């Protein structure tokens, strides 16, 4: 999520609102969902007028002056429900090593059958994961 915000704002934004949103995004891993949402709402309220500023472009159309900042803000808002999913999932592993190991095992099996046509590869993949799910 931080990468998406940096893409919109750059690493060294010029406006105060952009600097504050970038700093808030960097705190994402340290805050709980409730505190992050509260801080984000406070930031939005503080910079509401700045976010809603419009100007006329070269074609004579009204555009948001700070479109990239608005986009970064919307990206955070759109993904809020997914950002803190780990807080609601019990027994969530701390690493993805188990998953990576499973994929390594799967790739080895698929490599053994390297001459399969695409249709048969799809069947193999489907069958492999169906069997894995039945074993659990």
Describe the structure in your own words:
Strands 1-2 form a two-stranded antiparallel sheet. The protein starts with a helix and ends with a helix. The radius of gyration is 23 Å and the shape is elongated. It is built from nine helices and two strands; from the N terminus they run ααααββααααα. It has helices at 2-9, 16-26, 33-46, 48-51, 67-78, 80-83, 85-88, 97-112, 118-135; strands at residues 54-56, 62-64. A hairpin with a 5-residue loop joins strand 1 (54-56) and strand 2. Helix 1 (2-9) packs antiparallel against helix 5 (67-78) and helix 2 (16-26) packs antiparallel against helix 3 (33-46). The protein has 136 residues and is mostly helical.
Note the topology.
Elements: H1 2-9, H2 16-26, H3 33-46, H4 48-51, E1 54-56, E2 62-64, H5 67-78, H6 80-83, H7 85-88, H8 97-112, H9 118-135
Antiparallel strand pairs: 1-2
Helix pairs in contact: 1-2, 1-5, 2-3, 2-5
Shape: elongated
Average pLDDT figure: 89
If strands are numbered along the chain, what order do they take across the biggest sheet?
A: 1-2
Proportion in helices: 55-70%
Largest sheet: 2 strands, antiparallel
The number of helical runs is: 9
Uncertain residue ranges: none
Distance between the termini: 32 Å
What is the percentage of strand-forming residues?
A: under 5%
The string of secondary-structure elements, in order, is HHHHEEHHHHH
Radius of gyration: 23 Å
State the total count of DSSP E strands.
Answer: 2
Structural class: mainly alpha
